[in-house]
Request: fold
Amino acid sequence: MRYLIIGAGAVGGAIGGRLAQAGHDVVLVARGKQYEALRDQGLRLVTPDGPHIHRLPVVAGPGELGELSPDDVLVLAVKTQDSVAALEAWAGRPVAGGGTAAERLPLVCAQNGVESERLALRLFRRVYGMCVWLPATFVEPGVVSAAGTPLTGILHIGRYPGGTDETAHRISADLEKSFFEAPVVPDVMRWKYAKLLGNLANAIEAVSGVITSEEGLALHGRARAEGEAVLAAAGIAFASKEEEKESRGDKIRFEPFDGSERSGGSSWQSLSRGTGTIESDYLNGEMGLLGRSHGVPTPVNDALQSVANRFAREGRPAGSMPITELISEAAAAPR
Reply:
């Protein structure tokens, strides 16, 4: 199988780089300065086992590839706010032997949140969810660091909305030869909803820095409690903390390369790069949506969504709001 990594940033770059290192065919899809750097210098993937330079085919869009192969796998690794444009760009591409990508090819949503699978299923017939546990950072154009060891990441995969099939097992087998563990599960969204509860902290981290204080941990606890109440009201199952802990074990330890503390996650990185967008609408905003749909107040998540969006819109520096100020904003949010 050939893997087309749509969005070769932190997660996409780490997955694509490791697959390529294991000998699999990989094409990277990127935009702007990232595209230029990958095209001119290759992907530099920095891991605990050393830096690896991967000179892979790089395209800015599907038109540069021409006809796709029936053995292609589309891996969607853009932020959720960019999913619609990416899905529409790739859905109609012709596949050798007839039909289009949407009709014939598997599409894997390797993203935070739970919305992209639903968006994809409007167009694509074969959609797969992937729960991404992968500590990775988009350092600069062309450079991605993945500090997890001994595994680079754990990637639960399954059909959306549920089930498994041979393709999921084939993708899993390729990933498991590439420094990943990739359990094939019939209830992948159950794992993704559990990850979503953890990702409710992303907005806190993005605006106030890595969460180390008791105040920050307590604020995330309040956001998570709202999320759990919302999921219960909606009848949505999620993997327990105990299941997550058992699945991870000590398989992914964070080992920074220079002895420094870890930088922030995906939302923090978006603000740091000045992208002008942030994924909070599909993390904290998902809880707000479900809360309003089922009559459950979500004032903390609403406030975190609002502040994170304001930071992205105004170009404010990541981590620049004191946690006490963020807590005050959350306390003042309408109930």
